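Below is one such record:
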Amino acid sequence: MHHQYLNVGLLISFLSISFSTMAQQDSANAEQLKAQVSKAISHIMVTPREQWSVKVVNYENEEGDITSSIEHYIANEQLEKKWRLLKLNGNAPTQKQQNDYLEEKLKHEEQKSQGKSHSLNLNKLIQANSLRLKANLSSHAEFSFQVTMKKLGDDAKGKLSGVLSYNKHHDFVEKITITNNAEFSPVFSANITDIELTFEFIKINDAVLPMQQALNMKGTFAFFTEIDEVSTTTFSDYQHKATTTMSN
């Protein structure tokens, strides 16, 4: 009988050590993955997107008012020739529309060169120290994280959360989704009840490039006007340092 109690005690002790070791290994694996994800986020930011020609398709639906465009960015061209408007609302653009489009792009490029553009900075958007492993599969790891978006105002602080999907086989961030967990007011008299932002990426050789950005937002403005916006920007036909034009 004494030996039976001793064997049970040894088994419990062994299991306790095993579970403790497994927990330590899981924690170490999570920290390693977290470091890889942080590095992968920075990789997106340093990818030289200006070296890649790309087709850009925009779609926007604001309370039923639909607009769309197809653009082409041409790498290694002079500033005035970098961007071309191929379609506007399904039609070939007029000369005036072409001129207005080019003027807007030149203005944006100038702001960008002066550091005044509002391009997305993932290192600031994603609070790296808040990354928490949610799922660890053979091909992907999923992390939750806290979000900082100053453009949405102080009231949005603490009301946005994100989920990130990391492709373990190819070592890159594949998708980022940001949603709200409470209503917030980005500006006076505006109230956002639902918002979902998604960013999808593709890896070509060693470059991590955007594949699609999407926004779904609902709320009210001035208490009576409905906010119901859906917009997507899709990037395709990437060519590294290409200078040739693209067919419609």
